[in-house]
Amino acid sequence: MLKVEHVTKYYGNFKAVDDLSFDVKEGEIFGLLGVNGAGKTTTFRMIMGLLDKTDGKITLDGKNIDYSVTDNIGFLTEERSLLTKLTVREQAIYFGTLKGMSEEKILERLDYLLEKFDITNYKDKKIKELSKGNQQKIQFILAIINEPKLLILDEPFSGLDPFNIELFKEEILDLSKKGSMIIFSSHRMDHVELFCKKLVILVNGKTVLSGNIKEIKEKYQKKNIILKGDINLNKLQEINGVEKVIQKSDDEINIVIKSKDIVNDVFKYISECSNVTKFIVEEPSLNDIFISKVGESYEK
Question: Domain 221-282 carries which CATH code?
Answer without folding.
Answer: 3.30.70.920
